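WARN no homologs supplied; continuing
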Amino acid sequence: MSDIDSPGRSEASTGLPVSGKPAFVAIGKLTRPHGIHGEIFLEILTDFPERLKPGGLVYTGDQYYPHVITSLRSHKKGLIVAFDGYHDPETVGKLRNQFVFVQSKNIPPLPVGEYYHHELLGSRIMTLDEQELGELIQILQTGANDVLVVQTPSKTEILIPYIDEIVRKIDLENGVILIDPIPGLLPD
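OK structure emitted
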């Protein structure tokens, strides 16, 4: 699973078109100006930061305002980025704490059997014996393995480890994830 996703944002603000697929996917978050020439630090939220290049187009904020990248370089655990039209810390500082998006049509395809988070969110979670547990509302990245957060019809949450022994089948076309829960995983 890849970590590209709109992080915890409502459907209205993630650019979801009628089809349910996001028009934009978050790849980073702008945190603070860097230096005196209009650069800003970008916290990376994607497995594919190499896709960002000078001349590339990204979008920021809830209105998906377009920006052309003029330069970027690695810095600690992120990137220092400059955008066309931003030449000092005061103007680029207006972008502070905004998420950076790319259009979902421009994200690279994943190998067979791997999925972006946004492709899985909203899926119905069902057991192999066709018991519907609820809807996938969040995916937590824990280090060892991801954890699926499932909201039941009664609005409680169930945490399901995203491991092969439990997650048996992902059917993107029908929006269903089949699981084979181990004893004690599900509430009584």
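The CA atoms of residues 11 and 18 lie 11 Å apart.
OK
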